Amino acid sequence: VALYQPVPFSGGEESVAWGGGGGTLKDLKGNHVLHVWGTPEERAYAIGFLCAPQILDWMNFVFIEHYCRSADYHENKLIPAVKAQLGGLFDKYASELDALLTGMEASPAGLYSFRLGRNLNRDDLAGINSFYFLSNTLIFGPPPNIPPPFCSNAAFWGDKTANAELNRGLITGKNMDGENDFRKITVNDLLIVAVEPRPPGARRFVGINWPGFIGADMGMNESGLVLAPHSVLSRPDWTKSNMLDYGLLYRETLENCATPQEAWTYWTTAAITRVGGFNTAVSGRYLASADYPSLTFEADSYGGEARDPVFIDPVSPYDILTTNTFYKYQGANPGAFEPGSYHSGIAEEDYRYLAMQGKSREFELAGQTIGTAQMIEILKAASRTQQYSGITEYSFIGYPDNGSFALAREDLAGR
After folding, report:
1. Within 10 A of 411 (CB to CB), how many other CB atoms are there?
2. How many Å from the N-terminal Cα to the C-terminal Cα in the chain?
3. Number of helices and strands in the chain (H, E)
4. Are 234 and 276 in contact (CB under 8 A)?
5. pLDDT tens column, 177-223
6. pTM of the prediction?
């Protein structure tokens, strides 16, 4: 019997400098926070150096053990698919992946993966940064098959947040569900990554990530733009070779855009193919906006639509809910849709949507507006339904109008 224990982040503060950039890893209010600055390569080196043990754990226990189920699948099925279909990742981000490897190699942990029986290479790190491509490959491809991750998001503003706490500003809340592995690495190794690009030009942003990710699994930038992912069962366009994973698309969007409308323009003009079906809850500042401050990007490899708050009954210009079903986008290639991908309206099986809608309606009937306390109850309602509970890794609440956020991880002690 071989017993393996993942390596926890150290409790102290660690820093590294490389070239004109570097990074600092520390605990802040019970969360692991990694601040990186410099060029993309300098930031990647810092991630590799400061997080090498956790990157190895992610590869060994989450990527191979939990998802691929074997080193053979990783080596002979996944990595060839990544190389064939995510060419843009290698073309644009190869130097960052190499710098991340260099940082790991310079660390005491090194590069050796006991699951693979060799040192990690660029292809392996490209695989980590193709996490949603991996998920879609395992959902739609040959065994091992996995169930899709399901998430929930709610955003409120204006009349719905007319209270002393928010003063009509926007609040957005997100449950991240589905990646909760049995070793709880996706909980214990959750990282808040604060990115400060140098030289200036791109916007600074915070990504809620895991070790080894150079993108942003979800995130918020200094302009208040928030992007939150939700999978939808629409098969990727396997004929394409220019796919870009959502984590890297989110990073590019956060670096370049300030509002949901700017973000949608960016998405519809970028020369990439998305890696399958996704709903992205996109929110921004309300008090300084002339447009809707929150949209849902309903998109897959073939196309997409931006859903606004008044598209679904009951119509409200002050809130929008997002789960894992398309309501506006009917598919540029409907043949890619799996059953349940599209509903013409809210259906009985959309239980997390209905749970959030029902809880927010309770507050409305009681004469309460939405603040942090109410948002927490709305997120709890979605994550504790009869059909779906116990796999929420974390919950995120963003306050774009004042540039702040809150984060709660699963309480492993059960308190």
Report:
1. 8
2. 32
3. 11, 19
4. yes
5. 888 888 899 999 999 999 999 888 899 999 999 999 999 989 999 99
6. 0.96
